[in-house]
Amino acid sequence: MERTLSIIKPDGVKKNVVGDIIGRFEKNGLRVAAMKKIWLSKEEAKGFYIVHKERPFYDSLTDFMSEGPIVVMVLEGENAIAKNREIMGATNPANALPGTIRKDHAENVERNTVHGSDSPESACFEISYFFSMLEIL
Ligand code: CMP
C-alpha cells in the first residue's frame, strides 16, 4: 500500500471536471484518503514547487497554480505513485496517451490539469505540505 499526492489544478477545477478525474482514480483501484479544495497564494505555490525554483517556468507555473481554487488529495493503493502517473499521462498533453486525464483535459505543458508525486520522497514532502496525519483516513 502506497500514498501519493494528487492535485486537480486551477484549469481542471474551472472546467468542472473534478468528478470525472476522481472517478478515473477510483475505477483504477485508487482510494481517496484525504481531500480538500483550497486556493493557494503565490507564496504557497512557490513553496510547493520549490524543487523547480531554478526552472525558467517557475514564475509562470506559480502564477497559474495561484490563479484559482485547486483540489488536493491523498490517493492510496498498490503502486499508487506509478498508477497515478499512468492515469494522468505525460506532463505535456501533446505526448499523453489516449484515455489519460491530460490527453482529455489539458491545454498545454503548464496548464496540464493534474499533478502527481513522482517518487516516495516527493510524496512524503507533498502530502505533509497540505495534510496533517489526523486528516488522512
Ligand atoms: P507537474 O506535474 O505539476 O510538475 C511541475 C509542473 O511544471 C508541471 O506539472 C507543469 O505544470 C509545469 N511544467 C513542466 N514543464 C514545463 C515547461 N516546459 N513549461 C511550462 N511549464 C512546465
Automatic annotation (TrEMBL):
Enzyme class (EC, first level): transferase
This protein's UniProt keywords: ATP-binding, Cytoplasm, Kinase, Magnesium, Metal-binding, Nucleotide metabolism, Nucleotide-binding, Phosphoprotein, Transferase
CDD domains: NDPk_I
Highest taxon above the source species: Bacteria
InterPro entries tied to this protein: NDK-like_dom, NDK-like_dom_sf, Nucleoside_diP_kinase, Nucleoside_diP_kinase_AS
Pfam families for this protein: NDK
Segments passing through the bilayer: none
The Nucleoside diphosphate kinase-like domain, residue ranges: 1-137
Enzyme Commission number(s): 2.7.4.6
Active-site residues annotated for this sequence: H115
Summary of the function given for this chain in its UniProt record: Major role in the synthesis of nucleoside triphosphates other than ATP. The ATP gamma phosphate is transferred to the NDP beta phosphate via a ping-pong mechanism, using a phosphorylated active-site intermediate.
Protein name per Swiss-Prot or TrEMBL: Nucleoside diphosphate kinase
Source organism: Candidatus Nitrobium versatile
